[in-house]
């Protein structure tokens, strides 16, 4: 018996029990992409039905209809061509444009299987090819890595127009920089890693903003009233907007523009310019003008209203905290523990595994740069560690002041 979490449309999650294969429909889950000698291999786990060479399947995530040109069963690094595969089997197909976590069916059902929880990236760095002639291979590498790894993101800095790669830590990004060089023969210039801080509010704050601008022609008029407050800890969403207006103080066709304005304002907090999350915006009142009100006017009113009340909501900076597990010879336990404390880490576990000590700690990612080298030095090369994202947590007051001052200094020089 197999238990699946299924999304019916985007927002409804159900659990489905598969007690026996249903032969009349197909259901497959893509869990891995790999660049092989013969092109991209797409690994599928078949949950229902039968897939045959030449069949058409539909990628529910993209809506694309795809033909299965070749079906293989993998044996280590060898592959065996097969004509069909049944429920419960893992197979690979060639030439399918897709991404990790996609669901494939025969089109008779319109649900997708929920994929693994993918955390937001916690570290970013700027990257560019040394030679402009390598731009094609550089782009090809980044596109492929994004499809293979949902925790690896690629974006463009709006101010500098630099390519930004983001991931789950320093080592994670280093691996992809090395793969670009090794697999695509592209030397890249890499900037200094940057931690992905966030901002949030800690208390409720009211706003009442009137955006009014008169020009020679049609003016701009929009008033928004309400409040911003923090979302409960552990809330599944990072931003909520709720229209609580009774009556027609603001025509309903302007409400989406107001929500868009608040979302845009939350993309960059005033403390250090990082996104603001875990907030709820409640719209309670407002005013409009029969001639001068427009979507643009209300969008701008929302942006300025957010900025108006942000300081009163007592904002704080959040930093990514990593769950770090170290395994070191017991003789180095004291040295390693002391170093974790210096990095403002909190020891949450200390166990013994033979002659080794296993230390578990929560450590701010901003204090973990270069830790691989430091650990090797402290343990004569005998220590090892793993690190994974745990949560974003408020920074200390002195760290917040330092980050704010650094941000202000950088803005002053622009």
Automatic annotation (TrEMBL):
Keyword terms of this UniProt record: Elongation factor, GTP-binding, Nucleotide-binding, Protein biosynthesis
InterPro entries: EFG_II (IPR041095), EFG_III (IPR009022), EFG_III/V (IPR035647), EFG_IV (IPR047872), EFG_V (IPR035649), EFG_V-like (IPR000640), EFTu-like_2 (IPR004161), Ribosomal_Su5_D2-typ_SF (IPR020568)
GO cellular component, one term: mitochondrion
Annotated CDD domains: EFG_III, EFG_mtEFG1_IV, mtEFG1_C, mtEFG1_II_like
Pfam families documented for this protein: EFG_C, EFG_III, EFG_IV, GTP_EFTU_D2
Gene3D superfamilies membership: 3.30.230.10, 3.30.70.240, Elongation Factor G (Translational Gtpase), domain 3, Translation factors
Recorded GO MF terms: GTP binding; GTPase activity; translation elongation factor activity
Sequence ranges assigned to domain Elongation factor EFG in this UniProt record: 316-403
Domain of life: Eukaryota
Translation elongation factor EFG/EF2 domain ranges (all copies): 194-314
Localization: Mitochondrion
Gene Ontology BP, a term: mitochondrial translational elongation
Record-linked PANTHER family: ELONGATION FACTOR G, MITOCHONDRIAL
Family under the similarity heading: Belongs to the TRAFAC class translation factor GTPase superfamily. Classic translation factor GTPase family. EF-G/EF-2 subfamily.
Protein name as annotated: Uncharacterized protein
Species the sequence originates in: Davidia involucrata (Dove tree)
């Amino acid at each position: 018996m197999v238990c699946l979490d299924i999304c019916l449309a985007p927002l409804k999650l159900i659990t489905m029990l598969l007690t026996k294969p249903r032969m009349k429909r197909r259901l497959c889950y893509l869990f891995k992409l790999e660049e092989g000698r013969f092109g991209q291999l797409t690994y599928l786990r078949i949950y229902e039905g039968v897939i045959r060479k030449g069949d058409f399947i539909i990628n529910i995530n993209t809506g694309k209809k795809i033909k299965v040109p070749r079906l293989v069963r993998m044996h280590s690094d060898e592959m065996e061509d097969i004509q069909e595969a049944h429920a419960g089997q893992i197979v690979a197909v060639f030439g399918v444009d897709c991404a990790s976590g996609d669901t494939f069916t025969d089109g008779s059902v319109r649900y997708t299987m929920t994929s693994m929880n993918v955390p937001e990236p916690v570290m970013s760095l700027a990257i560019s090819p040394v030679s402009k002639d390598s731009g094609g291979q550089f782009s090809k590498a980044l596109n492929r890595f994004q499809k293979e790894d949902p925790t690896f993101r690629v974006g463009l800095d709006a101010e500098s127009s630099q390519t930004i790669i983001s991931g789950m830590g320093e080592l994670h990004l280093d691996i992809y920089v090395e793969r670009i060089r090794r697999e695509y023969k592209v030397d890249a210039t890499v900037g200094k890693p940057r931690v992905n801080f966030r901002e949030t509010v800690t208390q409720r704050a009211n706003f009442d903003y009137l955006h009014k601008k008169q020009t020679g022609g049609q003016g701009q008029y929009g008033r928004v009233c309400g409040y911003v407050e923090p979302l409960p800890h552990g809330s599944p969403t990072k931003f909520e907007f709720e229209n609580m207006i009774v009556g027609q103080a603001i025509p309903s066709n302007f409400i989406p523009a107001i929500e868009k304005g608040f979302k845009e304002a939350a993309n960059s907090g005033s403390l250090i310019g990082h996104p603001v999350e875990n907030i709820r915006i409640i719209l309670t009142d407002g005013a409009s003008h029969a001639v001068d009100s427009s979507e643009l006017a209300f969008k701008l009113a929302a942006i300025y209203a957010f900025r108006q009340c942000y300081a009163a909501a007592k904002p704080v900076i959040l930093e990514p905290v990593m769950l770090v597990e170290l395994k070191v010879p017991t003789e180095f336990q004291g040295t390693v523990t002391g170093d974790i404390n210096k990095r403002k880490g909190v020891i949450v576990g200390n166990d013994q595994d033979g002659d080794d000590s296993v230390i578990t700690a929560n450590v701010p990612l901003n204090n973990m740069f270069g830790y691989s080298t430091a650990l090797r030095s402290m343990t004569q090369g005998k220590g090892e560690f793993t690190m994974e994202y745990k949560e974003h947590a408020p920074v200390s007051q002195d760290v917040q002041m330092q980050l704010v001052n650094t941000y202000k200094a950088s803005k002053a020089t622009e």
